[in-house]
Amino acid sequence: MFEEAQYFAPVAKREDGSVTVELASSHPGFADAVYRERRNAIAALALNYQPGDPVPHAEYTEEEHQVWALVSRELAAKHQRYAIREFLDATERLGLPKDHIPQLQEVSDRLYPLTGFRYIPAAGLVPLREFYGVLADGYFHSTQYIRHHSVPFYTPEPDIIHEVIGHANTLASDRFAELYRVAGGAARRVESEDALQFVSKVFWFTLEFGVMREASELKAYGAGILSSYGEIEEFRGMDIRPLDLKAMGTTEYDITKYQDVLFEAMSFDQLEDVVGSFWATCDDDSIARLLADG
Known about the structure:
It is built from twelve helices and eight strands. The protein is an alpha/beta fold. The strands form three sheets. The protein has a four-stranded mixed beta sheet with strand order 6-5-8-7. Strands 1-2 form a two-stranded antiparallel ribbon. A hairpin with a 2-residue loop joins strand 5 and strand 6. Helix 7 packs antiparallel against helix 8 and helix 7 packs parallel to helix 11. The chain is globular and about 55 Å long. 43% of the residues are buried. Its cofactor is Fe(2+). Belongs to the biopterin-dependent aromatic amino acid hydroxylase family.
């Protein structure tokens, strides 16, 4: 859940080269001048980043490292109860630090030898086609900022906890990494905005907010659930529906609250067969036929 309707705070680059992140008045860090200045500096790092360069180093305070350590510890305990085995094994494989916020370059250095994925910095919102498209090449856009220390278990926008604890752990799995890649290929292949939205919605209801049956229990595999301290405790009580491409690609969702409609894969094999095969082959015509099918 990301409770600010903007999803990402707007980022503005001034004529003098300065960068400003426009936090909403409801943002926990709105009145914290030090936090806001650091958010501006971190956004500037991403805006000035050149592809192929090492990811620039972001400075974090001791309070922020403590937020990472606390949330990382609490989520790890919840993962043991609620996450699918593929995610747990990938988490152990990646071995993220638990006591400090990793630099995105450190995440890339750990991830690339495992599945070929690298992280690249994002100042804020990345256009849909660009965000998904580079997945095909093994790149994942990620913010570098962390939530305000006053509310460690809440973020009004996707932060590095979501991007790394949620997505990087997932990307350390060969099977998941392949799903991300074919999703990226689909985003590049389709031409219309409607088809792109369909592809992105399927991604939302699977790799962001997917659930799966495992040993007769409902478990989570979506990064949005697995990085949310609150939502991970609530997903089993939502409206759980069978995995269905047309339903996922046409269901509206509200980013400002917990996702109340979720789609259940009966196994990882089914996820690959249904969703992976769709992304690997879909185009505008096949999506149009899917939508026209009664």
